[in-house]
Each structure stands twice: as C-alpha cells, then as structure tokens.
Amino acid sequence: MELSPESTQPIVNRLKRARGQLDGILRMLDEGRDCEDIVTQLAAVSKAIDRAGFSLVATGLKQCMLDPDNHLDTAKMEKLFLSLA
C-alpha cells in the first residue's frame, strides 16, 4: 500500500527530529557527557521512532478503511503492527 506524501509528512517530520536527537547523542558521547543524560536522550529517540512506526501503521489503516476499492489484508497489517512491539 502506498501512502500519500500529505499523510506521511508528520511522520517524516517526527523522524527528522529523531535524527537530530540521535546526532545530539553522538555529540554527547564524543564530548564524554554523563551516562544518565545520554541514556535519557536514547530513550527519547527510541520513543520517537516507535511513535513514527505506529503512526505509519495507523495512517495505512485509515487509508485502507476510507478506500472502498482497497481490500484490507488484516493479517499483513497485524504483522506490521506487531513488528513494532
């Protein structure tokens, strides 16, 4: 299933922010910053990426439900959803 660029733009934005956070973590490591601060940032990046994945699956589900010609493969969607868990 292909998603429209309009529907995926918020997901792209979230991933770009996560990429920025990840770059920040790499700088923190290079600078020898405190472990606790680095782990906190890693957790934030991980959560942002997880949310992007769930948003992508939810966007796909919405699109499938709104398109009467699209036959929703529930097993495939479930597999995608569970792969994020």
**Count of runs of 4 or more consecutive helical residues:** 3
Mean pLDDT: 88
Mind summarizing the main beta sheet? none
Assembly context of the chains: single chain
Short description:
The protein has 3 helices and no strands. The chain has helices at residues 5-31, 35-66, 74-83.
Topology, pairings included?
Layout: H1 5-31, H2 35-66, H3 74-83
Describe the structure.
- The chain is mostly helical.
- Helix content is about 80%, strand content about 0%.
- It contains three helices and no strands.
- It has helices spanning about 5-30, 35-65, 75-85.
- Helix 1 packs antiparallel against helix 2.
- The chain starts with a helix and ends with a helix.
Features:
single chain; 85 residues; mainly alpha; 3 helices; 0% strand
